[in-house]
């Protein structure tokens, strides 16, 4: 530490404030180590209760709370994702693969953000680099990427499921469904990448770090997970990819996302009108 300001004692003598001025800035690692050292030594003081506050101490406490919340947040998202996808696709393996792919995309987003904005790997970006990341950034990336990843998953695999239910074998269903939904998925992901890329090249460090993490996450999820790993997994698994226990199939509600029930209704309506009519005069 650089300096210790003499204690300021309250009028009743019950409280005292000691100001410690560190050698480095509030976000420097040596300053954080100083806070941890003071807190560890607080237990050795007898007859007094010691609390540490200040910008660095508050930042450390906030980071710890956000880290604990992030673990619970990811667990809740994974559970909800698997349950919803089981109901939608009536399969056990597809939801697990889709969720693991989502976690892979989140990991790529985290790693790229840390490498660029904390380690300074890409010096050509105009935003400042080399500082610690925003504490709330992982929560933002996890939430936004979950929505986009599940949207891509449903859009791609629901078309493959439709072809499979029409009687095509698994590989033919993959080719047919992918050929119909793949170009649209590429266009949707490309638009998001361009939008996030515009913000990532800005000079505002917080906005650039968020946008860059989303850019990498969307690119990894759309072009690697959904368009490469997911079709490959479905092809390797074959018909077992669509397996579900009979008892669970009976319990699950029948969710008609594509609106095929309306098509059946429209096909049945003309047949009703084609019935012969008897005129009574």
Low-confidence sequence ranges: 277-281
Number of helices: 8
Give the CA-based shape. Answer: elongated
Largest sheet, spatial ordering of strands: 1-2
Q: If you average the pLDDT, what whole number results?
A: 86
> What order do the helices and strands follow?
EEHHHHHHHH
| Total E-strand runs | 2
The largest β sheet comes out as: 2 strands, antiparallel
> Approximately how much beta-strand content do the residues carry?
under 5%
> What is the gyration radius calculated from CA atoms?
28 Å
Tell me the helix content. Answer: 55-70%
Distance between the termini: 107 Å
Structural class: mainly alpha
What secondary-structure arrangement, pairings included, does this model have?
Elements: E1 3-9, E2 16-21, H1 29-41, H2 55-89, H3 93-118, H4 137-165, H5 170-200, H6 205-237, H7 246-251, H8 260-273
Antiparallel strand pairs: 1-2
Helix pairs in contact: 2-3, 2-4, 3-4, 3-6, 4-5, 4-6, 5-6
How would you sum up this structure, described in words?
The protein has 281 residues and is mainly alpha-helical. The protein contains eight helices and two strands. It has helices spanning 29-41, 55-89, 93-118, 137-165, 170-200, 205-237, 246-251, 260-273; strands at 3-9, 16-21. The protein has a two-stranded antiparallel ribbon with strand order 1-2. Strand 1 (3-9) and strand 2 form a beta hairpin. Helix 2 packs parallel to helix 4. It is elongated. The model is unreliable at 277-281 (pLDDT under 50).
